[in-house]
Write a structure and sequence with these properties.
alpha/beta; Rossmann fold; 7-stranded parallel β-sheet; 8 helices; globular
């Protein structure tokens, strides 16, 4: 049955930024597909809530509250997951993000921090996970990039540059780690997470964003999670080094920050 190829029974995943939004939805989706899941983010109470839902599905869940901007800490998730859950098969590098900023207030340090949080964290965790994945049948890595990594909009220089770097890191890492470990990414569009709470509470702004999106709506976290299950499972087993665009069809930013000319 084709649906059986989406199953993840006997697999173990680690999801960063798993306390809410896309990370929480992904952790639940992976568990629904049969995986046990290690969850990491800053806020323990959020992780505990997600872990409770996973355990209610009959799957195992462990929580690792941590500051994932620390590269040694994020790398340590691989060993901790394998030690607690017995193996490691799937990495979802979801932690990341950078606040909008004008060009003249985007310092070199700010740009470097964006690269570190969005790219170096993914590299550190994946590199630490490789030995564990190779002990079994290989594995799958899914990185959360953004449509801003392939389009231009004012205020997104640091964020867009970092996400573009993550997308190309995906292609290069896939080449290095093939054939046993697949590496893919998702270019996410505007999704209704806590990051867009302010937008969602302002009907006029939300309506403008929806009007600028070909599908005429914003995305839902579960829609990104569904794509991650696909890329993590045998259903996506012939895909590596690709960036899957799950963005409602947008080709340009659908949120105008209103930054003036210099």
């Amino acid at each position: 049955m084709i649906l059986d190829t989406f199953r993840l029974d006997g697999r173990v995943a680690v999801v960063t930024g798993a306390g809410r939004g896309i990370g929480a939805a992904t952790a639940l989706a992976l568990a629904e597909a049969g995986a046990d899941v290690a969850l990491s983010a800053r806020t323990a109470t959020q992780l505990d809530e997600v872990a409770g839902k996973i355990r209610a599905l009959g799957r195992k869940a462990i929580t690792i509250p941590a500051d994932l901007s620390d590269l040694s800490t994020v790398a340590g998730l691989a060993d901790a997951t394998a030690a607690e859950l017995g193996r490691l098969d799937i990495i979802v590098n979801n932690v990341g993000g950078t606040m909008p900023n004008t060009f003249m207030t985007t310092s070199a340090d700010f740009l470097e921090d964006a690269f570190r949080f969005n790219v170096a964290t993914a590299h550190a965790l994946t590199q630490a996970a490789v030995p564990h994945m190779l002990k079994n049948d290989g594995g799958s890595v899914v990185n959360i990039s953004s449509m801003m990594g392939r389009s231009a909009g004012r205020g997104f220089l640091a964020y867009g540059t970092a996400k573009a770097a993550l997308a190309h890191w995906t292609r290069l890492a896939a080449t290095d780690l093939s054939p046993r470990i697949r590496v893919n990414a998702i270019a996410v569009g505007s999704v209704l997470t806590s990051a867009l709470e302010v937008v969602a509470q302002q009907p006029e702004i939300k309506a403008k964003m929806e009007a600028a999106t070909p599908l005429q709506r914003l995305g839902e976290p579960w829609e990104i999670a569904a794509a991650i299950v696909y890329l993590s499972s045998r259903a996506g087993g012939y895909i590596t080094g690709k960036v899957l665009e799950v963005d409602g069809g947008i080709e340009a930013p659908n949120l105008e920050l209103g930054l003036p000319d210099l």
